[in-house]
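If I may wish for something, please sit down with the protein I am sending here and say whether tokens and residues agree:
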Amino acid sequence: MALKVGDIAPDFTLQSQAGESITLSNFKNQKAVVLYFYPKDDTPGCTTESCTFRDSFQDFQNLGAEVIGISSDSPDSHQKFANKYSLPFTLVSDTSSNVRKAYGVPATLGLLPGRVTYVIDKTGTIRHLFNSQFNPKKHVDEALTVLKGLS
């Protein structure tokens, strides 16, 4: 079942590209989180999306938000992807797709893992979600607009 605005974001602990355990609830009462689900490391749309988040990273930091990318790729794959494109934020590995399922991220055409971005406020509440497989840059614009409204 897909989550909606106003729902509490399901907590998770996943491994990052640096081998660290990242727990969503650790950000509660600290900062907002932009959690973006993407299909696969180093593919055209995902690279465009991730590099757009990279290029706007300072804006997210200025708004007090943490950016976390999530896909089913391994931590090693994430490390290579992050290094190749100088991604300054955390990528976490949902190899079992359990977090993707918990958030209700749909598959495109029933096959390709979906591309959905969630803006989660400091209380852990989902304030916005944006679902678009084919407009990766808009995920960043949407998230920044919502964060500006929260501050």
Observations:
- Strands lie at 13-16, 21-23, 32-37, 65-71, 90-93, 107-108, 112-113, 116-120, 126-131.
